[in-house]
Amino acid sequence: MANIDLGTFGINEGICEMIVTTYHGWSPNAAPMGIIRKNDEVLVRLFKGSTTYKNVMSEQMLVANLVYDPVLFVRTTFGNLDDSEFDVFTHEGRNFSVLKDAMCWAVFECTDMKETSEALVAKLRPLHARMNKTVFRSVNRGFNLVIESCVHATRYKLTNDEKYMRLIKAYSCTVNKCGGKSEKQAMKLILDHLEGKK
Q1: Percent share of the chain, pLDDT over 70
Q2: Apex 16 CA angle, 12 and 21, nearest 5
Q3: Which segments of the chain belong to CATH 1.20.58.290?
Q4: Topology (CATH) of 141-194
Q5: Residue 198 pLDDT exceeds 60
Q6: What distance lies between CA 25 and its chain's CA centroid?
C-alpha cells in the first residue's frame, strides 16, 4: 500500500463527499460518492445498476476527486460530464480518469468486494495521490446543504417520496441566505431538474 496521508487529500474520519471518477473502455464517468473512513480503513458503497458500480466491477479501480464546486456536484448527480472535463493520468501502465477541476485526487484499488442485494461494498487501497491546488476553506452552510440536497434528490428520484422534496426546498432557503453565487446556482439547478424545468 502506498504511504499516503489521506487526510491531506480530504479523506478524513466519517463519510467524505467526493466526486468519484471511473472508466471502462473509452468512457470516463463521474458521480458524487461518499468515501467512508473508519480509523485506517477506507470503504465505498456503490448501488447496483449505477455506471460507477459497473465500472468498478469491471476495473476494480476508482479515483476520489476533492471538489469545492457545488455546480459540479449537481451536474454529476444528474448527468454526464463532457470528456474535455477529464484528464488522463497514467500510473504503473494503467490509465485513470481524473477531474481537471479537482483540488486533489487519490487513486484507489477496490479490494475485498462484497455484494448485497442492493449494493457493493469495497475496501479502498490507496495507490497514488496528487495535490493540484492548496485551498483553505471555511465551512459554508450553503455548500453543505447543496451536497445534502444532491443526496436527497437521488432518493427522491428513486422513491418519489415528497419528504425529500420538502427537505430540499427547506434547504434552498438557507442556501439562498448563506451561499455564494455558485451555491445559489447549484440549488436552482437541483430544483429546476426535479421540477422538470431543465
Answers
A1: 96
A2: 115
A3: 141-194
A4: Methane Monooxygenase Hydroxylase; Chain G, domain 1 (1.20.58)
A5: no
A6: 21
Q: Are 33 and 52 in contact (CB under 8 A)?
A: yes
Fold for 6-131, please state it.
Answer: Pnp Oxidase; Chain A (2.30.110)
Q: In whole angstroms, what is the distance from residue 175 CA to residue 186 CA?
A: 9
pLDDT of residue 135: 65
Give mean pLDDT, residues 158-173.
95
**Where exactly does CATH 2.30.110.10 map onto the chain?**
6-131
Whole-angstrom distance, CA of residue 181 vs CA of residue 82? 23
> Can you give the pLDDT at residue 185?
97
What's the whole-number average pLDDT of the chain? 92
CB 37 within 8 Å of CB 44: no
